[in-house]
Amino acid sequence: MMMIMMKNRTDLVLKLLEMGYITSDIVKDAMEKVPREEFMTPETKNYAYLDRPIPLEEGQTISAPHMVAIICEKLALERGMQILEIGTGFGYNAAVVSEIIGPEGHVYTIERIEKLKNIAEQNLKRTGYLDNVTVIYGDGTNGYKEKSPYDRIYATASAPKIPEPLKKQLKIGGRLLTPIGRDTSVQELLCLSRVGHDDYKTYNLGGVVFVPMIGKHGWPE
Ligand code: SAM
Predict the structure, then answer these.
(1) How much distance in Å is there from the Cα of 23 to the middle of ligand 1?
(2) pTM for this prediction
């Protein structure tokens, strides 16, 4: 079973390379290494290497592998970086980022559903990623000021506009990636660079579909 999973993972990564979603060795190596099935429910593990979002619990989903690849590539991650993620889910994307930034970096990831936060923590512990990933239960639209500023911030849930606290918690020279919009037909992935204290540049990376970011600086419950 394990051999089949590994073969399926290698095949999927090859497909993502061919399609141009993966463009760097660091993202390729990380996605080849992290076992996506360990971040899914027992009922859905067999679908781990389909390039699709798959239901988790509480109406939430694990992001599609091509979306994780896009996020990691567009963030231009480097070893040793300090990262903030909004929307942990079961912890898969955080594990991939953790693999890329290495033990000298750290991922702080916030989840608003306590049950998911607890499952993510167990998954990350079992797979050995909890050393450089901290899972926080709370409203990620407020960011996590305690460990700011961050080199990179990314959200895997879609907000009405980029939450102000996240912009403020980004290092100058840092980069933030977040989907914006609620309706599935009008969401866009934005990339924001902080080029000065109050100076930001925004790029639109195109249409995406994510669950809503619910919170003080996101959508109302
Ligand atoms: N990063 C996940 C992965 O690796 O597959 C994807 C998670 S799912 C697409 C988005 C998650 O964002 C959900 O678990 C949801 O509960 C969470 N979420 C939504 N609004 C949030 C908020 N304000 N703060 C923290 N988490 C939030």
Answers:
(1) 25
(2) 0.97
